[in-house]
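ok here's the first one, seq then struct tokens
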Amino acid sequence: MTTFDHDMLREIYEQPHALRRTCELYLAHNALKPQVAALLAGWAIPEGEILIAASGSSRHSGLAAEILLEDLCGLAVDVEYASEYSTRGSDPTGALRHPSVLVLSQSGETSDTLAALREARHRSQKTLAITNVAASTMASEADVSMPVAAGIERAIPATKSFTCQLAALYLLALYEAARLGSMNAQTLAFHIRELQGLPASIEAQLDNWRHQAAALAEKYKSANTFLYLGRGIHYAIAREGALKLKEASYVHAEGYPTGELKHGPNALVSDSVPLVVLATVDPALPGSVLRYEKTLQLLRDMQAQGARVIAVANSSDTEIAALASDCIYVEPEPEYLLPIAEVIPLQLFSYFMALAHGVNVDRPRNLSKAVVEPHPSS
């Protein structure tokens, strides 16, 4: 029986069940629920332009959604920091665009994101809220609410709420692709089956990831900072992995697109600044293969440079293993589902790094579960 010393670890292990619950909200009999399609039908504008406003981990899920909605649906998507978007209400140039607005928030009460939602409504823009609290303010005020079923998340670092957001955004992309006719019935059914099979796959890998992450944290605990690298949709996971490490363990980390490493950040790479490289691949998708080949070349260069590299790679990938100092293996998945699986070893790595540094992983200093406006003093 698996035991958990902290809420964060327990919530990492709850992710397969949370993902199943979230899928059940939107899928029935291995198909998209028609009543949900009817609810979403009036949200996206005919011009196909979407703006995503979010903060923290939710913004990283928004970065993944940008790729999903553009690649699978052909929509034009921008991702804004909610704290920036919400302050542009008086900017006349900002009011010239009228996209649909998607807000993402675990609590549904994040002040910057709520302000962004209200700014969008002030501009009469269509709004959709994806939150983990169906009765939250955002869910109530948006034109359409699309809740996730992660369940109560007690640890401050977001884990199961993040992966459930990714699942909901994947489902949103499938609904939009079906509505727009950009995906045929056979391809849609394939994506649904793969999503439904993901929780069991994650469940089977959790213990191995846990052991690997614990060993890597012990090996790398003296590092001063980390650079996390990912291409395409995996860039969002590089950003999220870096954020998790910072907030959970107080070790500095930054996430970059893999191809940007040599445009400045490579000056930092040394024995005390390792790389964490997302190097998974979907062999069925040409774009994924191209990104993988470019990542292989970068790893060759980094090996020649003497860099220390932790790679997240497909199981049995011997090419990556030969080029990295250490590998965490993920079972193969389609390109757009890989982020849900590959972020979990990074969550576990941040958890064990926190333990190695003596941090209260459930309650990191200076952080709260939801960033809300303080009540004025009486």
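and now the second one, same deal
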Amino acid sequence: MLLVVSSSSFAWGPDGHRITGEIAWRSLSPKTKAAVSELLPKGSYDTLAEAAAWADTYARNHPREYRWLEPFHYVDADPRADHVIAGPRCECVLAAIEIQTTRLRDPHASNDAKVDALRLLAHFVGDVHQPLHVSHPDMRGGTTIDLRFSGKSMTLHRLWDSQLLDRKLRERSRGRGPRWRAYAQSLVDTQDAAESAHWTVSIDPHVWADESLALSKQSLFAVQRDESLDDAYYEKAMPVVEQRLEQSGIRLAALLNSIFDPGRLVH
């Protein structure tokens, strides 16, 4: 099992991670919001949305310092399996989520360590919800499947990382502020409270990875090399993208609430 995600691959792209962070922010309890606000430095990356994108927009632009993060964006999984099996010492996204959660809970961790932990946790929760950061039959996260979409050549991995969402954001009419923020708000506005509660019955990242594994086996990901994908594919794929973004935001909020406001998972 050798799922290898290229260092140029960004799960959901920066805007997708910003959407995860924005949805999470709007679902935090007041106590958790205060704790998160206190951790985030003033200036750059001073919102949870930007913090969630930090591992792509900052860390990847400083490879000498942060190259060690690369294997933590994904997890190896056998596409024939029913569950993702990853040891406690794996260099993978599941271990990364657990490490950063522990660091945020640690009363002895330095403030700088907790700032980085918050940024990485927000990012990696988004990563594990992207199905191709968990599995694909090509054993490389769909990075070997070349295709055409909207007249452009790309890999299946890139399509799911960013291009589907980019098209959705381009289609939205421009208003005040960035499109990703308005889109995040629209997802929040249409969320079902009962469904959100169901998504946070478990805040175990292994459960989230199993969901991504199951999704990676669906026909949406059974794309042939050099296939041209049409609008019908886009219409089928976007509900999956939207649900995984919503789930990652709601679950990030639940995880942060469990750290900073125990007993209060979803606001």
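notes on #2: The chain has one domain: 13-252. The beta strands are 146-149, 152-155, 227-229.
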